[in-house]
Amino acid sequence: MTTKTELDKILTALDATQTLEGLQGIIESICKVFSIDHAMYHWVDSAGDHYYFGTYADAWIQQYQDKNYTRIDPVVSGCYQRFHPVDWRRLDWSTKPAREFFQAAMEHGVGNQGYSVPIRGPNGQFALFSVSHHCEDAIWDNFIDRNSRDLILIGHYFNRKALEFEPDRAPEQAQPLSPRELDALTLLGIGYSRAQVAKTLSISEHTLRVYIESARFKLGALNTTHAIARAVSCGMVII
Fold first, then answer.
1. Which CATH superfamily is domain 4-163 in?
2. Where is the HTH luxR-type domain (predicted)?
């Protein structure tokens, strides 16, 4: 498990870097701190351009791009449908293309275990922060239990820094949300339960429900998930 000092060093380095290249060195340090084989940040900006920072073998990244594996990668398709982090074992690997993709990834040393944090920003920006390793299921489950919150935080810090390199983005205009409404949607969006959100904000679940319903009305959303999605697309919430 990372110490607070180690985590603070990673987050401070992310805040300080001024170049896209600087992210590569930081992601390499994450592997050392967490004692894992690989870490990867994949960012699709609002113009549809792809960026990769990570420790996978160059041959695997090239093969991934050449064969357009984004179309069949269960991690990409699975995370695109979710707001919450995903353990790769929970994804659907049953199709033949998915099994062949997994085998190719293993041959390039990606690892049999993985954990990905889906992140969404304004105007269609989408990113994945992933870590992977080769180990038994029980060891990986213990690793995720101990480190998931730190990994989620690091993933969102990576994305916040990446968004700084899109200075001309213009979020859609919408009725503004109050600070409490923004806090509620942000925490729900990164995977907190309603009880956890209420505790974090030091409010009752009844009061939390009032904030959520108010935000939903302002955003013209059908439900809470829709409200989170709309807030993200408008640039109000970054998760």
1. Transcription factor LuxR-like, autoinducer-binding domain (3.30.450.80)
2. 170-235
Assign domain 179-233 to a CATH class: mainly alpha
What is d(CA 67, CA 176) in angstroms, rounded to the nearest whole number?
43
Q: CATH 3.30.450.80: which residues of the chain?
A: 4-163
Whether 1 and 146 have beta carbons less than 8 Å apart is answered as: yes
Burial 199-228 (b: 16+ CB within 10 A, else e): eebebeeeebeebbebbbebbebeebeebb
Interval 121-175: pLDDT, tens: 766 678 899 999 999 999 999 999 999 988 988 988 888 787 777 655 444 455 7
